[in-house]
Every structure is written in structure tokens, then in C-alpha cells.
Design a protein that fits this description.
Blueprint (H helix, E strand, L loop, with lengths): L2 H24 L2 E9 L7 E10 L5 E8 L4 E12 L2 E6 L4 E3 L4 E4 L5 E7 L8 E8 L5 E8 L11
Parallel strand pairs: 1-10
Antiparallel strand pairs: 1-2, 2-7, 2-8, 3-6, 3-9, 4-5, 4-8, 9-10
Length: 158
């Protein structure tokens, strides 16, 4: 091996080591169990549930979400709040803080992602992409799996 080859190999290895922290930082957000329930034929809304974990060393804010216009006209982060004796859903407009080593669960009765203006009903067994937008992290795109419809539920979102 020539001296030139050794120098190039060392420089490439050093470059990869320097690039590693940025790669790790971008992968500090993990999203698990992204799912939605199948909807009835005329539904215009649906909810997505998932878990977001921050494995990084600094806090981040989930600022928004988006889906393809093939799925819905818009996606929003919502939460459920008590208003007197009624539970109501409200859009979260100032983001969700996720501290280091924290986990935020999107579930019924709490945070969830609303899909509004569904183009077609969500059918069991199908899946679609959802993108999460963070203040100081790369966008994270996950596949949402559509499960069976809620049994015996007349509940509709909004």
C-alpha cells in the first residue's frame, strides 16, 4: 500500500468519525407503534396514535405533523381537555416539549394526531406515511398501520 493510499484511508476514517455525532443526534428521536383505526366509508377525520422518544442529550419540540394530500387535506396535533364536565379536543399550536430521555405517548384521551379531510376511508391492513416536524431535529417519517375499526363505538372526532 502506498503512502498516498494510507493517507487517504486515514483521512476518510477521520471524516467518518467526525460525522458520527451529527448522525447520532439526528437519530435521537424514535417513533414507535404508529397506528390508526379503520374508518367508516363517509368519515372525514381519523386519529393517529404513536409513541415519541427522545434519546438525545437536549430537549426538542414536536412542532407539527404532515401527511400526503393523497391521505388527508391536513394533519394536526391535538389534545383532549376537560371543559366543565365535557371532554373536548383542541389543536396544540405551540408544540410538544420532549425532554432528554423522555417519552410522549399519543393515545385516546390525550395527545393524538388528527387527520382531517380524509381523501378515502382508512382501511384495515393498509398503511400510510406520516411526517413529524421537530424544532432542532431532522423531520422523521414513519409508517402508520391501519388496524381494525373501534367496535361498538359511535364516537367521532370533532
Amino acid at each position: 500500500m502506498s503512502v498516498k493510499s494510507v493517507v487517504i484511508t486515514v483521512l476518510l476514517a477521520a471524516n467518518m468519525l467526525l460525522a458520527t455525532p451529527a448522525s447520532v443526534a439526528m437519530e435521537s428521536i424514535m417513533v414507535h407503534n404508529a397506528n390508526a383505526r379503520a374508518t367508516f366509508a363517509l368519515a372525514t377525520t381519523a386519529a393517529v396514535y404513536l409513541t415519541v422518544m427522545n434519546h438525545g442529550d437536549s430537549p426538542t419540540v414536536l412542532e407539527g405533523v404532515s401527511v400526503s394530500s393523497d391521505v388527508a387535506s391536513q394533519a394536526q396535533i391535538h389534545t383532549t381537555v376537560m371543559d366543565g364536565d365535557m371532554m373536548k379536543m383542541r389543536q396544540v399550536t405551540d408544540g410538544i416539549d420532549i425532554t432528554p430521555d423522555a417519552m410522549v405517548e399519543f393515545k385516546p384521551g390525550g395527545y393524538h394526531i388528527m387527520l382531517m379531510g380524509l381523501v378515502n376511508p382508512l382501511e384495515e391492513g393498509n398503511s400510510f406515511s406520516l411526517t413529524l416536524h421537530f424544532d432542532n431535529q431532522a423531520d422523521t417519517t414513519v409508517m402508520v398501520t391501519v388496524g381494525e375499526a373501534a367496535k361498538g363505538s359511535a364516537h367521532q372526532h370533532h
